[in-house]
Predict the 3D structure of the following.
Amino acid sequence: VLCNVEAIEVDQDPLGKQARIVRQTEAELVLAKPMEDGSLAVGLFNLAEEPRAMAASWADLGIAGPQRARDLWRWKDLGIAEDRLEARVNRHGVAFVRLRPDKGE
């Protein structure tokens, strides 16, 4: 994390909002943090002992419309997501993604 500029940007965002719990079960935790620029940082935490497919819908996250998704761990654009964020997450792992409304640019 210390060398990941994009993860640090989420931590030090000037808006200063804390992430909220979107969903929490024995097997998973989903957190969402609004950012000053209008984007949303989302963490999909796999608390289980096995890898699993995880998802959060726009309704879950409180957003609407197509979103540009960026993997903050890998510094990689994931493309446009229409109505949900989906990721395969390793056991005790996390998918850390930033969603920005797609303005058709």
Remarks:
- The first strand starts at residue 20 and ends at 24.
- The longest helix spans residues 5-11.
- The two ends are 30 Å apart (CA to CA).
